[in-house]
Predict the structure.
Amino acid sequence: MKLKSLVRYIFIFVIFLLFPINSPLTANETCNDSFIQSIVDNDDRKFEYHENRNDIGLFYNFDWDKNLKIIKIKRNENNYPIVRFSLLENSKIIPNKTAIKKFNSTDLSKLSDDQIKKIHKSKGLIKIELVNGEKIEIHSKPYKLNDFKLIDFKIISIQNINTAKGILEMSFDAKITNNRNDLIRSIDNSILDNQLHNICEDFKTLNTWPLMSVVFDEYKYDADVREGLKNKEKLITPVFQLTYDNGELRSMRTEKGVGYFRQSFDFKKFPFDTQKLVISISTGVSNFQSENSQDPSDYGSITFLTPEKGPFLSLKNFYKPEINKLRAWKIKNDGISIKSRTVYQDDYYDIYEKKITSRSQNFLDIEIIIKRNFQHYLFKIMIPVFLILSVAWYVLWIPTHKYEARLNTSIISLLALIAYNFVFQDDLPKLAYLTDLDWFILLSYIFCCIPVFLSIAFSKFIFKNQKKVTKINNIIKIWGGVLYCLITLQIFYK
């Protein structure tokens, strides 16, 4: 019995050596970084907002001035600011559409961006006048504000634009930050430095990081080619870091690698089509008029995701052909933009509170406008189809009494067109509707069949009325060709 007990204890000891129990980080353990450990020892876990505000919750959209290289308030043609989001009045003030003319009788077109931002922090009853002349009164209300920053977004390359499946495969490198000056009180001033501090894995679970809510709208997440928050294995390069610069403490999240983004393509103009590629990023946090994630008060909350200068400057470089390496497509001039979008939901069901409420969420869309290089389809499909049709149509210049030669030539041309269709069919998208190229091919089939039908019809009447048959043939061969050209122009230039 003693021998068995000894063996049992040795076995348990070996198990503990081989498989140590991982316990959460405590004040007595270390993250090998005094900067991080100071936060572990002193910070209390809770969701933090940047600001506590008391105003009407009206914010304006942003615009990039490529000449001055600054981000400014987006304005309409009359210099009135365009709304990005309204917390308290969203039925009449529509994001990205409504422009504000006056704020308490002050003409906003005459104010600078800083002046507009300043007066919009006013409390009390505010009178708003829209550009359409409608007047709205809004009472200010306390709420909490978060504004995540997209500080950089580089497109490394676009590997594939799968138009059949509607998927964009793209390599990118994105960095998002969140101001966390609330954590400064947890850090000894003597260890504050201008360096990046990696947040170890255990520390991520000990503290609340609002930035973890940000979601990239990806079709799939392949951990083998993608590095980010969703990786279940420990990464060599950290996803989360803390940085202290110019008196500001920020958490920084890095997302990079190959992303797969679902796209909605419209091929009606194919192959002369222009498409919009969209990489959508959401805050993952809802905006409420009377709720927030920090405490049980009835304070409202707003969470934005706003780009800084970095993404605009980085995306500008992707215009260069030596960088984007797109062969089947070209990026239109000024075809890359960053836009804000708000999605409203009036019937959101809160599974925790068990109630139906209204909410909204902010999205940031990186849009790339690309135009297809149509030369492949022009020279390898359209021109050959036109040449086959020309041979079939040229039958109408053969004397009408030689109907056997006419019939043989026209049938051979029709069969050639059918056979050639099998050659290029894999180059055409399989859709539930007809593209411009489909209409062109269908039109060519119809006009290729006309000489066949005419040859058969003329063979019956050729001996009865040769003169009339010749006259009809002459009319069709001229006006039929004109009609074909007009319909073709209508297809591609409608």
Q: What stands out?
A: Residues 466-493 form the longest helix (28 residues). The mean pLDDT is 85.
